[in-house]
Specification:
The protein is mainly β. 7% of the residues lie in helices and 50% in strands. The protein has a single domain, classed as Lipocalin. It has 1 helix and 9 strands; from the N terminus they run αβββββββββ.
Length: 123
């Protein structure tokens, strides 16, 4: 765990904490990364079941994997993270992508992914 924290800091920021931003429909979304490698997404204030997260800091943008197990099934959602500043990240999830990890943020013509949003750290 200590290695993960050091790696995140070396990438110009620490992902641990609460992050919030507005999506393409101007609805507030929030994401919380905890030091025990769990993440919780909030949609209109409602928390999701916890996900396990892993971050590949050797990639640029950083590769994020959110994994959840329910009812004997495991699901992984791929994502990308890029630190804009210590308290601001560009963030995107790719919920329909299951065969390979995306390497770039979404372009306007790709309808299969969510849009990239800017999240700010909540203090």
């Amino acid at each position: 765990m200590l290695f993960l924290g050091i790696s995140l800091f070396a990438q110009s920021g620490n992902l641990i904490g609460k992050w919030a931003g507005n999506d393409e429909k101007n609805q507030l979304g929030m994401l919380e990364f905890k030091s025990d490698s769990t993440a919780i997404m909030y949609n209109q204030g409602q928390p999701s079941p916890p996900f396990r997260f892993s971050l590949n800091t050797s990639k640029n943008p950083l590769w994020l994997d959110l994994t959840s197990s329910m009812g004997g099934m495991t699901m992984t959602i791929f994502g990308l993270v890029s630190f804009v500043s210590e308290d601001s990240i560009k963030f995107e999830l790719f919920p329909g992508q299951t065969t390979h990890h995306p390497t770039e943020f979404n372009s306007q013509d790709n309808k299969l992914t969510s849009t990239a949003i800017l999240l700010t750290r909540q203090k």
